[in-house]
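Entry 14. Two folds queued back to back today. First construct below, sequence then structure tokens.
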Amino acid sequence: MSIHQEAARRRTFAIISHPDAGKTTLTEKLLMYAGAIHIAGSVKARKASRHATSDWME
């Protein structure tokens, strides 16, 4: 697949809300149900073994 075809099939959207409204939780569930990740992470549990994928920047 060419880079043009790959870019054409992608969609970008934003989830905007006030703090602590559940944006990361919603994002994690969307990623999980779409098959991008296998387990939805957690934001509040500091000692949780699985943190939110969408809260990390590389």
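Second construct, same run, same settings:
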Amino acid sequence: MIAAQLPLLLRSFPETTASQDILEEISPLPSSSNKDREREKSAQVKRSKLITPRTSKEDLEMKARMELKYEEEKRE
């Protein structure tokens, strides 16, 4: 019985005034999907890896000493 009524319902569905509301209720547009959230998380992780605490004063001094040592060895 339902199978016989289905084509009639499908044909008349777009003509109903509430059809758009029903469609939106059935498949609402997501504000953000899980994939979007995962992308945001991975982008945050990549950004945080770029900004590391390795640029401390001691590290910069060590780098400068290493460069000076390299220059001195190069001259010899």
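Quick look at the second one. The chain has a mean pLDDT of 68. The chain is about 70% helix and 0% strand.
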